[in-house]
TrEMBL record:
SMART domains: Fapy_DNA_glyco, H2TH. Residues 2-166 form the Formamidopyrimidine-DNA glycosylase catalytic domain. This is DNA-(apurinic or apyrimidinic site) lyase. Its cofactor is Zn(2+). Coiled coil: none annotated. Gene3D superfamilies: 1.10.8.50, MutM-like, N-terminal (3.20.190.10). The keyword Oxidoreductase does not apply. Residues 227-261 form the FPG-type domain. Transmembrane segments: none annotated. It holds the Pfam family zf-FPG_IleRS. Belongs to the FPG family. It catalyses: 2'-deoxyribonucleotide-(2'-deoxyribose 5'-phosphate)-2'-deoxyribonucleotide-DNA = a 3'-end 2'-deoxyribonucleotide-(2,3-dehydro-2,3-deoxyribose 5'-phosphate)-DNA + a 5'-end 5'-phospho-2'-deoxyribonucleoside-DNA + H(+).
Length: 264
């Protein structure tokens, strides 16, 4: 599941393959950029901002700086292929963007919100985001302030709201609430230690940065990587109670009814 750490990893893979490289071709299979051609453009940087991916490029003359934005949502991915390698990560009809260079080709599958904007206007796409959990400018106090700003919201939805803090997806949301013993329906105002929750969010994502298997338990063994996420009806690793799963807001939530008692 693409969460902040997955997007961070993706940006790193793209940066290694493309930074400083001049493109020999491009193919945009999204209507809004169907006629765009980035041949001769030079990639200067690839970065993540929360769950958004930013590929920065210079025009052939170097005169203007642009940002190619994409969002992975639930199912998007970028893959880098060597010259001549088969593009076999996903079915071809899911390809949205191809960036070709002499040394490698980056293929974006099932991307969302693909847009090309002047780099100076990146804020139009990512300016609404709260502090980036994996950004060099991560600001826990600001994340707490933004969460506390909407005290009546339930904490499960507040953690997913990227305007509060950027990078938490459904997996980390469920695991964070379990680790802090917080019921997902708790109002933000009733969470005893928002600062502790925000700090743990940062620590979990940072711990998983640089690898593709996401674990909140410390174990990388299959079936052992989460406490509650994806474990409906299985026994809680702490107390043995069956883990519950329920729709809450737009997303499903997993929790232990004993370790995370309902707010009174
Ligand atoms: Zn439990």
């Amino acid at each position: 599941m693409p969460e902040g750490d997955t997007v961070w990893n993706t940006a790193r893979v793209l940066a290694r393959a493309l930074t400083g490289v001049r493109l020999t071709g491009s193919d945009f299979r999204v209507p809004q950029l169907a006629t765009t051609d980035l041949t001769g453009w030079r990639v200067t940087d690839c970065a993540s901002r929360g769950k958004h991916l930013l590929i920065r490029l210079d025009e052939p003359t170097g005169a203007a700086h642009w940002t190619l934005h994409s969002h992975l949502r639930m199912d998007g991915t970028w893959r880098v292929y060597a010259p001549g390698e088969r593009w076999n990560a996903r079915p071809a009809h899911l390809i949205r963007v191809v960036l070709s260079a002499a040394t490698s080709t980056a293929v974006g599958y099932h991307l969302h919100e693909v847009a090309l904007v002047p780099t100076a206007e990146e804020h139009r796409l990512v300016g609404h985001l709260g502090p980036d959990l994996l950004g060099t400018d991560w600001d826990p106090q600001e994340a707490v302030r933004r969460l506390a700003d909407r005290p009546a919201e339930n904490i499960a939805e507040a953690l997913l709201d990227q305007r509060n803090l950027a990078g938490v997806g459904n997996l980390y949301k469920c695991e964070l609430l379990f680790l802090r013993g917080i019921n997902p329906r708790t109002r933000v105002a009733d969470v005893p230690d928002l600062a502790g929750l925000v700090t743990l969010a940062h620590d979990l994502l940072a711990a998983n940065r640089g690898r593709w298997t996401q674990s909140t338990t410390g174990s990388l063994r299959r079936g052992q990587t989460s406490y509650v996420y994806g474990r409906r009806a299985q026994p809680c690793r702490r107390c043995g109670t069956a883990i519950r799963k329920e729709e809450l807001g737009e997303r499903v939530t997993y929790w232990c009814p004993r370790c995370q008692p309902a707010p009174t």
